[in-house]
Amino acid sequence: KHHLISAADLTRDDAVMVLDTAQELARLADRPIKKLPTLRGRTVVNLFFEDSTRTRISFEAAAKRLSADVINFSAKGSSVSKGESLKDTALTLEAMGADAVVIRHHDSGAPHRLATSGWIGGSVVNAGDGTHEHPTQALLDAFTLRHRLAGSGDGVGRDLTGRHITIVGDILHSRVARSNVLLLTTLGAEVTVVAPPTLIPIGSEGWPCSVSYDLDAVLPKTDAVMMLRVQRERMTAAYFPTEREYARRYGLNGERMATMPEHAVVLHPGPMNRGMEITAEVADSPRCTAVEQVTNGVSVRMAVLYLLLGGAPAGPAPSAAPAT
Ligand code: CP
């Protein structure tokens, strides 16, 4: 495959290959000199039209740990603010020899446009487009679940077959929810989305998951719960739930977390609204994997760049020779 635009691009075997490769790269990078020489001489461009902390930094760290040259482009402070189009921006990057373009954009579909336009010859990786998809977030969430649930119950193999995963919150505006529903079900999990009726998208009946409005009914049967931020910046004021009412019905607090099975974990993609969808008590508890997800994000993004730019899948391991 040349691009990663949607979690739907990945078959079960593709997804397991990315996760296995990420695991192998994490093992190789777990030493004082973290760099591998694998992408030496290649150029990765981070093209961010929308704010990001975790995704931008971890793609940069991932590319650097593979010894690629990294160009960071932020629309703020660039000629985009003078009206330059996506096409002209892309042609400029192409002229600089980008082997991969990692794009975050406020418009759903912008990465697809970039991948199919012919404006650039390199690989395109979707780092989050509008309310559409965020496939590397879903991959790092699956990596975290595979790791955290491996020791529980009857164990987890290379996929997530039979696991019950609950995604809670602003499903309507969440690219993280869309990509996770697609990827986690591809990996064999049974996914339930939980939200107020106003934050469930029209058309979600066609998604490969169950829908519930009752968080308390779902929690005792879940292996993992993923809490999502309410994305006020994508809502008109009429949609805003009140913080107190939302937290009372859909927020995860210590009392609710205690109703989950003992092995069950809490994921959050970040950024968090502490006090709204998650209390500080839950966010800071050992059951919450938010920080671990960020660490895993670097390994997963290393695997994505490595595989897209021509590396061999896990098995014949990437060279462990330290970069000079
Ligand atoms: N989870 C995530 O995409 O975070 P950022 O917006 O900080 O990249």
UniProtKB/TrEMBL annotation:
The keyword Transferase applies. Its EC number is 2.1.3.2. One of its GO terms (molecular function) is amino acid binding. One of its GO terms (biological process) is 'de novo' UMP biosynthetic process. It comes from the Bacteria. Keywords: Pyrimidine biosynthesis, Transferase. Catalyzes the condensation of carbamoyl phosphate and aspartate to form carbamoyl aspartate and inorganic phosphate, the committed step in the de novo pyrimidine nucleotide biosynthesis pathway. This is Aspartate carbamoyltransferase. It comes from Streptomyces lonarensis. The gene is pyrB.
